[in-house]
Amino acid sequence: MRIRCKPWARPELEACPFYISDPKSCRGHWAEQFPQKQPLRLELGCGKGGFIAQEAPANLAYNYIAIDIKNEMLVLAKRKLEAAYEQAELSMENIRICIDNIMYLSACFAENDRIDRIYINFCNPWPRGKHKKRRLTHPRQLVQYRQILDGEIWFKTDDSELFEESLVYFQEAGFRITAMTRNLHAEPSLCYFETEHEQMFVEMGKSIHFLIAEPDLSVPKSALEELLHDSAQYIERNAEHERTTEKQ
Ligand SMILES: C[S@@+](CC[C@H](N)C(=O)[O-])C[C@H]1O[C@@H](n2cnc3c(N)ncnc32)[C@H](O)[C@@H]1O
Questions:
Q1: Could you tell which of 54, 120, 124, 140 is best to mutate to test the pocket of ligand 1, judged by most ligand atoms within 8 Å of the CB?
Q2: Is residue 3 part of a domain?
Q3: Which of 46, 85, 107, 211 satisfies CB 3.0 to 4.6 Å to 180 for a cystine?
Q4: Domain that holds residue 111
């Protein structure tokens, strides 16, 4: 999807009290970013914020961080969140938003930043062979999430190939699937707040695929060493690249 450039997005985010401008500086200290110490949940790739603007104000006993890579998206999420909290007459204490490339999530979250749940809603499918590593459900990603996760990952997509391959990815990265459907809207007991992309795909007549996965504690960390190493190397290469471009 092409996104129109919004030169006002960054300044508007920088002025927002619940925007975290330097997420890397919060590594190991995310709990301190909220007035209440309570379980922390992440939405990865929040887009225009349709999901988080329903989820966060409805669950005040949890803290939320919504992450996207694009200012132009996150600023729309910011506005949607403000409208939702204002309508519910709530203060925005349990929500923070930030810009980050989730592919390097471990650069922003340390093992002591314990996460209760991760939502991945309609991430980009990256269907071409060598691009599949960019999927937010690629094993290289899942092992990063596993390091910080106490609870579950909730994953929704319209893309059947991404879904079927993700079922394998989750197993490879030491997760077990605890709930799963290839037609979410036929199972109302599993349905939860809808996202913008979900509404669009449902209108197009597409089936929504959904799963819940949790770390399989019978899989020892040693079995994931290779993936963890690959993931760490990938993040280090990016950090090196960032250091070099900063110097130029
Ligand atoms: C297809 S949209 C889905 C948006 C929303 N979750 C929904 O369901 O309507 C994918 C979103 O993920 C974000 N995204 C893609 N890759 C990302 C990455 N590596 N790090 C952070 N956000 C990413 C995009 O900017 C976009 O907003």
A1: 124
A2: no
A3: 211
A4: 9-247
